[in-house]
Amino acid sequence: MPRTAVVIGASMAGMLAAAALARSVDEVIVLERDDLPDEPRPRRGLPQGRHAHILLPSGRDAIDELVPGGEVRGRLLAAGARERGLTSGLVTLGPQGWYRRSRHHDAYPLLIGSRDLIDRTVRDSVLASTTRVRIRRASATGLLGTAERVTGVRLTTDAEGGAGSSAGAAEERLRADLVVDASGRGTRVEHWLADLGITGIRKDVVDSGLVYATRLYRTPVGAENFPPAQVTADPKSGRPGRSGLLLPIEGDRWLVSLAGTRGGEPTGSPEDFVPFALGLRHPLVGRLIAGAEPLTEVTLSRSTRNKRRYFETSERWPEGLVALGDAVATYNPVYGQGMSVAALGARELSRELDRAGIGAPGLARRVQRAAAKVVHAAWTMSVGQDQWFPGVRGKSPTLADRLLSAYTGRMSRVATGSYRVSAAMCGVTTLQADALHLLHPALLLSTALGPFLPPLSGPPLTPEERNILSGLDTPAS
Ligand SMILES: Cc1cc2nc3c(=O)[nH]c(=O)nc-3n(C[C@H](O)[C@H](O)[C@H](O)COP(=O)(O)OP(=O)(O)OC[C@H]3O[C@@H](n4cnc5c(N)ncnc54)[C@H](O)[C@@H]3O)c2cc1C
C-alpha cells in the first residue's frame, strides 16, 4: 500500500513538515481550511500576518535544509524581502542602551519581509520542490485510531470543496501513516487526543498582556536606504514594557509594529499611533513615521501569550502523531522566534525520518522530544524576559531568575560596547547557540570587566542615515 502522510495546516510548520515527509512517503496531503491566495495577501487563518515578522538565521538555515538550493531565500529576496545582519544592519535600542553597529562583521542575517510574502513563498517553494505534496482545502475535525496509534484524520469539506462545517459539509476519513498537527495556536489537538483517551497534557501560560498595534506606511522618498529600527522595552524598569519596530518591506513600504504590555497597551486609534511611537524610550521610530503616509488603518493583535503544551512529557503518546510549530508553543512575538522554532521542529522531523524511517517504532515520540528542545530554548528566553513586566500572569521570578537576570543584564550593557559579547548574545537570541554558551569563561571575564566603550548617546546612524532622519523631521514646505 502507498505510504501517505497528512499534515494539518499549510503555513510555516505545515509546509516545512510536508517537505520533510515528501522524502519518506508516496504522498503528503496538506489540509488547509483557508482558501489560499495566489498573491501574498492577508488570509483568515494567518491573522498575525499583518504584523511585523523577522525570520532568524536559524530558521532560514533549517528551511534551507528542508527545501534545498536556497530556494526560499532566493525567492524572498527576488520578491523584495531584505536581508540585514543583526550586528550591523539594524538600529537597536536594547534594554541597556544602543547597540553599536559593526563595520566589519555582517553576522546573523535576518530575513525581513511581510509575513504574507513569507507564507506564500514557503508554500510555493515546497510545492515546486516535489510532486509528492498536495494541498487540499478542508478542515481537520479529529483523529482516527487509538491512544496507541493514530491512523488518520477526520475532516470536513463543503460542496465547493472549501472547508468548514456549513450546511452540506460531509465528514470524511483519511488514512495516514503519519499525521502532523501544524494547525497553529488554535489547535484542537488536545481535545482530539482526549477523544482517544489521552488526557492531562501539562500546559504553561505566561501572559504579559502584550498588545500589538501595526500600521503600514509608504516609505518616504529618499528614505529607501534607512535600516530597520527598533526601540525595545526594558523589562526591569518596573513600568509596562513598550516597544516599536520599523521594518522596510517589499513594495516600498514600512511596516511598523508598536507593542505594550499590561497597563501600557497601544490603542487601535490612528491618532494615537505616532504619539505612542514618540513616547517610547527613544522617539526614533516616531520621528521616522511622523510625516509618512499611512497606507492602512491600525491593526491590533492580542495573540501574544507564551503558551506551551508539554506533549513530550505526556505519559502516553500515540505512534503516528507529531505536533509542530505554534500548535506546541507560542511566545511573546517581540522576540521573533515562532517561525524559526516551527522550521527547526520540521527539521527534527526530517532528520528523524532520515535516520529511522517512517515506520520505526517510537518515531513520533522521538520527534516530539527533539522538537521540544528548540521550544525550550525559545520559551526560556521569552518567559525569562516577560516575567519582569508589571502585571504578568503565570510566572514570578525565582532567586535563580534574579541571579541570571543580573548577569544577563550586565552582559547586555557590556554588549552595547563590545562586538564579541554582542555577537555571543546574538547567537543565543537567534537560536543558533545554546544559552550555556553565555557562561563561557571568556565571556564571564568580558562581562565582569566591561563595558569597554562608553554608552552611545543616540542611535548609531551613518551620516547618510542622519541626513535622512533630519530630512524627515523637517516638513516639506
Ligand atoms: C503579532 C505577532 C507577531 C509575530 N512576529 C513574529 C516574528 O517576528 N518572527 C517569528 O518568527 N514569528 C513571529 N510570530 C509568530 C509566527 O507568526 C508563528 O510562530 C508562525 O506563524 C507559526 O506557524 P505555524 O505554521 O505553526 O502556525 P500558523 O502560521 O498559525 O498556521 C496554522 C495554519 O493552520 C490552518 N488551520 C488551523 N486549523 C485547521 C484545521 N482544523 N484544519 C485545516 N487547517 C487548519 C490555518 O488556517 C493556518 O494556515 C508572530 C506572531 C504574532 C501573533
TrEMBL record:
Residues 1-22 form the signal peptide. The keyword Signal applies. Keywords: Signal. SUPFAM superfamilies: FAD/NAD(P)-binding domain (SSF51905). Residues 456-477 are annotated as: Disordered. InterPro entries: FAD/NAD-bd_sf (IPR036188). This is Pyridine nucleotide-disulfide oxidoreductase. It comes from Streptomyces akebiae. The lineage of its organism: Bacteria, Bacillati, Actinomycetota, Actinomycetes, Kitasatosporales.
